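Can't paste images in this forum, so I'm doing it all in text. The chain is below; anyone willing to post the predicted structure tokens underneath?
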Amino acid sequence: MFALTHQFLQQLIEGDELYTRVKKNVAPDESQGWTIVLMDRATRFLWDMQCGRKDRKLFQKAMRLLCQVIEQTGDLTLLTDGERRYGHLLFELCSEALRTGKRGRPRQTLPKGVKVRRKNKGSPRHKRGRKRPKYQAPYPEHPDTVQPVATTAMHANHLEAFHTSLRRRCATYRRQTNMYAKNTGRLQERLDVYWIVHNFVRVHFTTRQVPAVALGILDHGFALHELFLIQKAA
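Text version of the structure:
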């Protein structure tokens, strides 16, 4: 986060989860192999890749990082597919009171410039028979927030494509094999290495740039041998 020294115009971030086995095959809700990924759509920069059990703690860790990004940006949009905890925890962590001078308790809204959009998968009905809307802005936004998101842009297709690439490149996520992760620590180490190579070394085939360069953090991408010359801060 120390590299974010100026204000970015816009961050359009997709959030989604990826699943793999850890140690042995268990029920998905008990597995430690869920991975939350937050990716900027324009530059393909990966903000976060954290693995663990799919619970509140894992989502909260990702949303705390996103709150730090919000402090450095004037316009941020979070897009998710169906999962409600992204927006719920983000609203819980960074919502602010909208003071209008009127009597009564101030209304809680997202910070100015922050938007959350969710595309609901399927169309399940509520108990009273109402259909759940396919596209939602589930939390109140600041009245000065501009640039509405078109419904055609409310998806995580780019992140789904990234998941396909990750399954192809990382054996622990490959389907129909026994090459699963032995424990979450080892799985997170592989994710950290992949995060570094993806963001700072490899040129993305769609943007033709290293994601960190496209985002403005670096002037040029690193070579692999240069990563081993970087000294760790004391």
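Helices lie at 56-72, 85-94, 157-169, 184-200, 211-215, 224-227. Strands lie at 11-19, 34-40, 46-52, 76-81, 96-98, 107-109, 114-119, 135-136.
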